[in-house]
Amino acid sequence: MLICPARPKSKKSSPASFAVKFIRMVYEEMLPAHYGDENLGLFDNGSLRKLSNLAREDITSGPRIYNEFTTAAFRAAHSRIPKFIKTADDRYNVFNEGHFEDNFFDPHVIHQKGTGDLCRGAYLMENLKISSSFGDSVRNHLLKIKKGQHGMDLFAINIARGRDHGIPGYYKYFEKLQTDPKCKPLYQKWIKSGGLSTTTKKIDKLYEKENGQALYESRDDIDLYVGILLETHLDGADIGPTGACIQMRQFKILKDQEYWFYGKKGFWNAAMKKELIDQFDLATVLCLTDKTMKEVQKEPFIYENDWKATGSTEKCASKRQNLKIIFEKAYRKESPATPFWARKISPCESITCFNNGNCIENEINQQPKCNCIEPHFGEQCEEHPCNEYICEKGGSCSVNKDTQTAE
Questions:
Q1: Tens digit of pLDDT for each residue in 320-333?
Q2: CB within 8 A of 317, min separation 6: which ones?
Q3: Tens digits of per-residue pLDDT, 145-194?
Q4: CA angle, residues 346, 21, 323, in degrees to nearest 5
C-alpha cells in the first residue's frame, strides 16, 4: 500500500502534528488491516488495540528498536512489491504505466499523471502476498537503470543483512516466542488451524538434499528472514506468528515507552485537537492529496475487488468540510467566555457547494441544500453534463442552453 501524504497549507500545523497523524494511521488503521482484529485481541490481551496503558511518568526504558525487527520482520513486506505500476484517473479508470523495474530512476509517471492518479492506482491494486516468492522487479532488477539488463537482488540483500547483524536462525526465535506470554495465544491458534504442519513441510524442503545439494545443512541454519516468509499466515492476517510476534512486540514498546506517543495521558492540551487528529485517516489524506479526488474507499489499507459496488466509499467533499469545521474549532481564537460548543453553527457549515454554488437552508427542516448555477447539478454542484460525455476526433463538449444537455 502506497501512502501519499498531503500537507494542508496552514501556519497552525507543526511538523510534529503531521508525525502524530501518520502514527495514528499506523496504529488505528494499518495494524488492524495487517493482523486482523482477532489477532490483535490475542496478542498481549489486546494491548495494541488501546492507545496506551502508561502515563508519561510510568515510562521506564524509553523506546528502542529490536534488531530482529529492523533486519528481518520489518522487511517481510518487500515480497509484496508489485511487478507493475498502475494509475487511476478521477473516475477510477485504471491504466498500466509499465514495469516497476523501469521506474526506479524515472519520475515521469508522477510528473505526467500527478499524485492523485498514482495514489488511486496504488490502493486499487492487489499486492503480492508475503511469501518467499519475490516479484521480478526487486528479485533481479532492484535499482536497475531503465536501459540496463539487470539490477540487484533484494531477497539476497535481506538475507545478508540478517547475517551481518548476527541474527540467530529462525528456529531459535520460533522456540523462544511460542512460549512468550504475549505471543503464545497467536501460536496456539496457528497450530490448531494447521499452520505448523504446513509450514514444517515447506521449511523441511530447504535442507533436504536434491541431486546431492541442499539450501541449508540443517534446520538450525535457516535464516530468520526466510523462515518468516515461509510461515503459513495466521487466519485473518498477512503474516505468520513469528513475524507477527516480532512486529507486534516492536509496535507495543514504541507505543508504551515513547514520551510523545499521541495516546499518552497529558499529551493533548485540548480535546478538540485530539478530535482533529482522529479525522486524519488514510481516506482523508487521499482526499487532501489531490483536488480531483471525489470519492475514496473507506478503508484503503484493505483491498476490495469491487469496493464501489459494495458501497464502501466516502465522498471527499464531506470529509474536507468536516475537517475544516473541526480545524476551526480546535484553533478558534474566541473569548474563553464563549467556548466553541456554545456557538451556534449554521447547517450550511456541514456542506461544500462547488462551482460557485451557494448553500441555502430548508425553511421546514433546516437541512442544508446547494443551489447550483447551471449547467452544474448534483448534491454539491459537483456534476456537469459533459462529465460523462465523450467527444471523438478531437471534438469538445458543449451544453445546450435550452435543454441543459451535453452535445
A1: 888 777 777 666 55
A2: 294, 351, 352, 354, 380, 382
A3: 877 788 899 999 999 999 999 999 999 999 999 999 999 999 999 999 99
A4: 15
For 182, half-sphere exposure in the C-beta direction (CA atoms, 13 angstrom radius) is: 18
* Separation between Cα atoms, residue 251 and residue 63, nearest integer Å: 10
Secondary structure (3-state) at 96: strand
- Locate the domains of the chain by residue range: 369-407
Mind giving me the DSSP string for 65-87?
--HHHHHTGGGGGGGG--SEEEE
Backbone angles phi, psi at 361, to 5 degrees: -100, 135
Residue 78 marked ligand-binding: yes
Amino acid at 166: G
Residue 268 C-alpha cell reads as 493533548
What is the DSSP track for 352-382?
---TT-EEEE-TTT--EEEEPPTT-BSTTS-
Consecutive H or E run containing 229? helix 224-230
Q: Name, in order, each residue with C-beta under 8 angstroms of 58's C-beta and a sequence gap of 6 or more.
A: none
